[in-house]
Amino acid sequence: xxxxxxxxxxxxxxxxxxxxxxxxxxxxxxxxxxxxxxxxxxxxxxxxxxxxxxxxxxxxxxxxxxxxxxxxxxxxxxxxxxxxxxxxxxxxxxxxxxxxxxxxxxxxxxxxxxxxxx
Length: 118
What we know:
Helix content: 10-25%
Mean pLDDT: 80
Oligomer: single chain
Structural class: alpha+beta
Distance between the termini: 17 Å
CATH class: Alpha Beta
Strand order of the largest sheet: 4-7-1-8
Number of strands: 8
Radius of gyration: 15 Å
Shape: globular
CATH topology: Alpha-Beta Plaits
């Protein structure tokens, strides 16, 4: 069940090679989302992009290309996502995140966190 605030989408933008305490930052955030019982998380890796450093990174035919852009997308109750962001506060220097209210037009049966499977 969602709160009166409704649904929200949290998108976290980062470098896929970024580390946090000897673990991939992407993995750390997804595990924290799972531990926090969020509805789900999707990680999308880009084939090209650039950030504040101004260096374009792109996929190559060469072995393992690092420093590609990635985004973690979480859709859940807006208040739950706001609370989740505050739990990532020690990582804030390494992350760019946006949080927007969204309209969910078709949700899984029950629409509760327990029944979501995506």
